[in-house]
């Protein structure tokens, strides 16, 4: 494997829990063969010891960093009132964070194959901390939009953490380990809305950004003291590294299929979550940001399927998981069309149940796609991951924009129609004969 060193023993805390970080520190030190500060060397070809607490660190880092993209969504109404921005202008905040994320994956994530992933994670943690503090201090929409773009770029540390987990995991456990880390990532996406809705309503939106900055700073410290170092798998120049993305796309039909299917599925996922708060704020619900954010709890239940999806991918193959996940997402999105037939309380229950279903489907499909992609070329995992997630977040950004337009023009039924049609298109991509897309 590519891991050649362990870093210093761990201290500090993650998310305010000194005990959790101490456990990470103790376990990581054990893998180095001692509890002292310093480094230990292992054979490049030996499988590293991937302890449960190191997996916890990776999952927490992925979740907290990607959560930075979504804190703003339930707070948009409060933000607009406080800084005097129009609804259309403030709607650019989540769009810029997602576009920044896609741009960061494209331009920065491939560096994980060229340089030590641990160093890249630490640099991005520092930049993300500063960007979140800028967002919390913004007095006008201009600075907030600039900070949002920077947040999106730096939050791609999550996309350095996931390939790091795949590299550390032995082949027979890779699906399960990646699934566990991806559970952390998706929980970060979903629970970020719950947390930010509550904090914004009770303490103000600026407090949310400051608290997020503090959590990333703590993760950075824990990663500095607990993560192993990684050996570069390529020595290509940066321009050649970016050019190699096109080579990989042309060369591997499985990569093209995974990126296209996940991107299409992400359109509906993003359209739902980007318009939910606006829909719930209007009649007949008249609910605030905290209630809108609380729906993230329903979606978070679906995230727990990730380790199971990884285990099924390991035993039965990821292709089966992608199709099952897509079919579950389609059924869940389609069920939302029944909402006009129900009472207000019935519609809320339907929204919660559908969120559980399609989040489970989206997560299972993503884990299976990652299992497929990471098996293509082990030495190019960061670049392969970049292609997959650029496709995914282009779909997310498109879903946010299209969802808002459709909600304004045709109401909730327009959003549901978009989600169902793009999910069906993703299933067609997965069912299409492989030879067709491999050409």
From TrEMBL:
This is MFS transporter. CDD domains: MFS_NepI_like (cd17324). Keywords: Membrane, Transmembrane, Transmembrane helix. It comes from the Bacteria. The keyword Membrane applies. Residues 54-437 form the Major facilitator superfamily (MFS) profile domain. The lineage of its organism: Bacteria, Pseudomonadati, Pseudomonadota, Betaproteobacteria, Burkholderiales. The chain crosses the membrane at residues 54-71, 91-109, 121-147, 177-195, 207-226, 232-249, 261-283, 289-308, 320-342, 348-374, 386-406, 412-432. Gene3D superfamilies: MFS general substrate transporter like domains (1.20.1250.20).
């Amino acid at each position: 494997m590519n891991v050649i060193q362990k870093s210093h023993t761990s201290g500090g805390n993650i998310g305010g829990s000194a005990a959790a970080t101490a456990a990470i520190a103790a376990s990581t030190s054990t893998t180095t063969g001692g509890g002292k500060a310093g480094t230990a060397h292992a054979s490049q070809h030996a499988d590293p010891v991937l302890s449960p607490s190191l997996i916890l660190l990776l999952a927490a880092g992925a979740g907290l960093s990607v959560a930075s993209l979504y804190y703003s969504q339930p707070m948009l109404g409060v933000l607009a009132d406080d800084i005097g921005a129009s609804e259309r202008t403030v709607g650019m905040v989540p769009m810029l964070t997602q576009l920044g994320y896609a741009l960061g994956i494209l331009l920065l994530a491939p560096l994980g194959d060229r340089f030590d992933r641990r160093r890249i994670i630490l640099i991005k943690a520092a930049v993300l901390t500063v960007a979140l503090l800028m967002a919390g201090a913004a007095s006008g929409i201009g600075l907030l939009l600039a900070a949002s773009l920077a947040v999106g770029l730096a939050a791609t540390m999550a996309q350095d953490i996931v390939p790091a987990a795949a590299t550390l995991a032995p082949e027979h456990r890779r699906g399960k380990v990646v699934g566990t880390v991806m559970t952390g990532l998706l929980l970060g996406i979903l629970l970020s809305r719950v947390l930010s809705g509550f904090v914004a309503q009770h303490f103000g939106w600026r407090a949310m950004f400051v608290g997020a900055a503090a959590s990333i700073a703590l993760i950075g410290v824990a990663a500095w003291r607990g993560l192993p170092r990684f050996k570069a798998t390529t020595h290509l120049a940066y321009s050649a590294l970016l050019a190699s993305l096109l080579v990989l796309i042309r060369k591997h039909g499985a990569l093209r299929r995974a990126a296209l299917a996940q991107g299409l599925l992400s359109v509906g996922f993003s359209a739902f979550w980007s318009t939910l708060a606006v829909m719930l704020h209007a009649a007949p619900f008249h609910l605030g940001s905290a209630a809108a954010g609380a729906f993230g709890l329903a979606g978070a239940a679906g995230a727990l399927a990730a380790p199971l999806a990884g285990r099924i991918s390991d035993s039965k193959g990821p292709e089966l998981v992608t199709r099952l996940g897509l079919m579950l997402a389609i059924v869940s999105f389609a069920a939302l069309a029944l909402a006009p037939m129900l009472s207000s309380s019935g519609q809320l229950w339907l929204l919660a149940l559908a969120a559980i279903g399609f989040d489970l489907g989206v997560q299972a499909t993503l884990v299976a796609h990652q299992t497929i992609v990471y098996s293509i070329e082990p030495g190019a995992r960061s670049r392969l991951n970049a292609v997959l997630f650029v496709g995914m977040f282009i779909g997310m950004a498109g879903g946010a924009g299209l969802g808002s337009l459709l909600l304004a023009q045709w109401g909730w039924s327009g959003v549901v129609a978009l989600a169902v049609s793009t999910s069906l298109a993703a299933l067609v991509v997965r069912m299409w004969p492989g030879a067709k897309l491999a050409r």
